Records
---
Amino acid sequence: MNRLFPSNSPDSNIRPMNTAPPPIMVVGVDRSGTTLLSLMLDSHSRIAIPYESKFFMRYHNMPDQLGNLAEPEARRALIERMLNEPSVRQWGHTVAIGDVELDRCTSLASSIDALYSAHARACGKDIWGDKTPSYITSLHVLNALFPEARFIHIIRDGRDVASSLVQQWWGPNDFAEAMRYWHERVSCARKMLRMLPENRFIEVRFEDLVANPRNTLESITTFLGLDFEEAMLDAYTRKASSRVGESLSEIHPHLHEKPNPEQAYKWKRQVPASDQAIAHEIAGRTLAELGYEQGATQHPGKLFRELYHRVRSAYIWRFGNKKPPTGG
């Protein structure tokens, strides 16, 4: 048995084959285009993907608090708790307790499935999905919960990801730390996904998505066994604000626009050669495996720049100067 991806988890029979399409898991490191891709997929007439769930792993890690789901009262209480999750309350289509098939909610996985299926029905669709970047290191849990799920791993050049992460209040403190963050998570995700059958996952690049969205989306819909739909190319721009909420202007300022190739490879214009050399030392092999251009591999100022990053990281850790979170 594969220890990371067991073939027979306790929930493996909650969704018998040929009764409903499998869920879709959009995975990727933060700032890699997961939101853009999920909105494009959500524009398909059959796919419903809310912004982010954020609670799957928390519930998975507290099984003793789920109650005895053989009892109707416990099933109802669990769904009511999920309906009160901040992420669920922000859904554009309201799902009430009466919309969820409580008889199916005999496990955590089947409860999530029933809730998200109700959301999909409210949207007039029959396939649900999720995209939550923090799950990138927990793909084995997602697979155990949903052993038929299809995984779409979107990858972006780590130097662009690192440059974007350091601008966020929740991201790593500096460029070198952010490069390690990207490298560790991308490498982990790729290793885990390759333990699955080939028909269970696909890798796409952010750069391809913004340069040629039609071809990239066609490859994804073919992988999912669906027809490509023209609405996927631009419908998301009209609903981005309602789906993403307050973070649209602050974290996702370009979602109301059509894909722009200028959002790719910004590191060539913005990352100094000394930092490019640091990125090469940290993740050069992974960048090369993914087909990305090397950039500078050596620089006389590299050692000084490494010292700068260590000092800056320590300073921010000690005193903090990042923007605090707003709202809930």
---
Amino acid sequence: MDFEELISQNTPFTIIYMDLDNLKKVNDAYGHSVGDEYLKQFTKATIETVGNKGNLYRMSGDEFVCIYREVRIDLFFSTFNGKISNRFAMNIPFLGVSIGYSKFPEDGDSLDKLIKKADTKMYSVKNNQSE
């Protein structure tokens, strides 16, 4: 409903699609309770980054999508990197996140198109990191 409202009002925004890298390694090495804490810290850092400019939604185990009511994605990245560094002062390192994004209206006029484009970019980033 949040997406549809912004689209119907023709309000520019960015869809940010995020997939945590190597969450299975965290669970295998440290246990699922630490993996759960890892997810919580990632979520908190992302919510702090977005602030009152959007919302974060969990799509599946380690995939998230964010509505960011801002078109300057560089603002998200600059804040996000600092928040992640602060949050992951745990006993385990942050193993990364692959991020793709799309912008309304230039990248699509429906939620499906925007998520597909952001997801495609995210997988491109993920594949380039693993090479």
---
Amino acid sequence: MKILVVDDSKAMRMIVKRTIRKAGFTGHTFIEAGNGAEAYRMITGDDPEKHPDLVMSDWNMPRMTGIDLAERLQREDVILPFGFVTSEGTKEMRERAKNAGALFLIAKPFTVGAFEEALTPLIPSIEAEAATGETETPTPSEG
């Protein structure tokens, strides 16, 4: 599975990837984007082999926010599991995320358990991956 981690902070992208691994989801390829506009290009690019299978996005970013990305994908009927890892988790944000098609919103500071709960229905477990080895794709520009 190819997981796109979208955050304007490189450090936060690293923390999200590490937490996914700690939650038991290994053997996946991670790709990264520094903002929603960059993520949109990766999701909708010409080569379907490069498209992610899951998007985990921050909410507030320059150029295009995560919620703007989710809403645009929904308007364009791009079907892709999408969730948020963000610093806020108000009732209004959760409702807007749900209306934009997001499957989850994990609020910072987050726990491994929050990732397990959100991702278990979406990502094959470590047993299903059977030691395929994890790869990482170099990070594109910070944006």
